[in-house]
Amino acid sequence: MKKDFGDSISNKVYEYRVLARMSQQELAEKVGVSKQTIFVMEKGNYVPTLLLAFRIADFFEVEVNDIFTYLKGTDLNER
């Protein structure tokens, strides 16, 4: 049985994008994904691949941890 630890990733993609005065479409084109991917990521409904997280951080010239934060959960199977 696969364990669900309840971990998640929060992000500041929206904040960085707005500060850069970019549309979702513009950012999507710069990092090689669809506008929909940026939209769902900003809403917290999509955890990007490690590669995409690095592309976004590189684009904004910051560290990955400046945009993405790991939120450690607990093992839900032990509750």
- Determine the N-to-C terminus distance: 15 Å
Strand content: 5-15%
CATH fold-level label: 434 Repressor (Amino-terminal Domain)
CATH level-four homologous superfamily name: lambda repressor-like DNA-binding domains
- Total number of helices: 5
If you average the pLDDT, what whole number results?
91
Radius of gyration of CA atoms, rounded to a whole number = 14 Å
What CATH architecture label applies? Orthogonal Bundle
Low-confidence stretches: none
Shape from CA axes?
globular
Question: Structural class, please?
Answer: mainly alpha
Report strand order across the widest sheet: 1-2
The CATH class name reads Mainly Alpha
Fraction of helical residues: 40-55%
InterPro entries: Cro/C1-type_HTH, Lambda_DNA-bd_dom_sf
Domain HTH cro/C1-type: 13-67
GO molecular function: DNA binding
Keywords: DNA-binding
Structure in words:
The protein has a single domain, classed as 434 Repressor (Amino-terminal Domain), CATH 1.10.260.40. Helix content is 48%, strand content 10%. The protein has helices at 13-19, 24-31, 35-42, 50-60, 64-67; strands at residues 8-11, 68-71. The protein is globular, with a radius of gyration of 14 Å. A two-stranded antiparallel ribbon has the order 1-2. Helix 2 crosses helix 3. The two termini are 15 Å apart.
